């Protein structure tokens, strides 16, 4: 990847993130990003997939925020992550209220 292609990709990602942070789930995104590794590890301390699920959850909520996705659709996407995804989501009050 050339340096120009990298810069374009970074600029595109910054723009997408800004849209998500201004969307309807901006508080939920902030809540998720405020969780520590220790918070996540408290769910299943011996499982390394928690952080992967956490990352997927953040992506889902960012995309839902940018697209103004309905709450029911967001809940369905979170549930597709399984029990770990739901447990992590429940750590954020705005999302917990939806579940």
Short description:
It is built from 7 helices and no strands. It is an all-alpha fold.
The SSE order reads HHHHHHH
Radius of gyration: 14 Å
- DSSP strand tally: 0
The best one-word shape is globular
Query: Any low-confidence stretches, pLDDT <50, length ≥5?
Result: none
Q: How much beta, percentage-wise?
A: under 5%
For the report, how would you describe the main beta sheet? none
Structural class: mainly alpha
Domains, number: 1
CA distance, first residue to last residue: 41 Å
Helix content: over 70%
Total number of helices: 7
Q: Overall pLDDT, averaged?
A: 88
Commentary on this structure:
- The chain is an all-alpha fold.
- The protein has one domain (3-96).
- Helix content is 71%, strand content 0%.
- The chain has 7 helices and no strands.
- The chain has helices spanning 3-21, 26-33, 37-41, 49-66, 71-79, 83-89, 93-96.
- Helix 2 runs antiparallel to helix 4 (49-66) and helix 4 (49-66) packs antiparallel against helix 5.
- The longest helix is centred in the first third of the chain and has 19 residues, at 3-21.
- The protein is globular, with a radius of gyration of 14 Å.
- The mean pLDDT is 88.
